[in-house]
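Supplementary Data S3. Sequence and structure tokens for construct A.
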Amino acid sequence: MPSLHLAEAHTGRLHLYELTWPAPGLGGLLGACHGLDVPLVFGNLTSGQPAMLLGDDLTGAEVVSAQMRGAWTKFATDGDPDWPAYDRENRLTRIFDTEPAVVPYPEEVSRRIWREHVFSALPLITDV
């Protein structure tokens, strides 16, 4: 929810996405886990630790990676990733999966539960 709160507080144009493609590596144990978008965005599907998440059959990974690389490249080139900008009324969110979609914010129930909660800033430096 902190990222959604940031999106809702932002005053300029922004685009929201959610990666729902479940990584099949490690028996699918981690699903669409945190950080999975990094190898997909950069097309690093076969080397290093990301390869463990993606498994041996890269068919789904290649599809989702192509979507993400295309959107990020288009956004870097002209500021438009090719899906509608997020706004508080429609809350359109791009879903990255083997079947891509643009949908109203998919975690709406969670958004309503957390909408009044204020997330405190995390300290940048801590005393050890």
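Construct B, processed identically:
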Amino acid sequence: MKHILLKSGLVILGAILQGFGMGVFLFPHAIPSGGSGGLAILINHWFTMNMGPALWVVNFSFLVLGVKYLGKTFALWTFIGITLTSISIDFFEKHLIIFNRHIFNDLVIGSIFLGTGIGTLMRVGVSNGGIGVLALIISHFRRSLPGKSLFTINCIIFFVTAVIISWKILFLALVSQWISATIIDFVFRMQLKPTFPT
């Protein structure tokens, strides 16, 4: 029970940190946090749906596709994580407004929070959902590593988002990916005890 409570607390923390980075710093500039973020930005652009619910729809759709391959326990924790992240994004977008923004500062700060949140989730065996689930499905069928599929799909989504909204998004998204991936690796390598099963 103690382990479940601790894991729950870390999932909540990771989801809030991720939602804070996206809702406060990245999404106001339409900077995709990843492939799912890019799709959420497109949904927001086309249907004027708020970013929190838009991201949840994208993540949940891919999670439903991946339950068979990821397992029910993994899927349940991931569902909790993506739901809390979307609620956090929606809350921060509505209640925390920053004036006199600087896009580069927001890019760096948002990517650091994003990477810390995702890294925290991954440390306790929880996925942040989205395109990562699709990449795992592709790797299952092709019997290959998911990294290449994930990178390829994300780049395609970034390109499409850039064509539809603005070309600067492509550069900003790639920089954000590099920063957040570096932070994810740092958090993931930290020696945290206890280790949690998925």
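The mean pLDDT is 83. Residues 2-189 form one domain.
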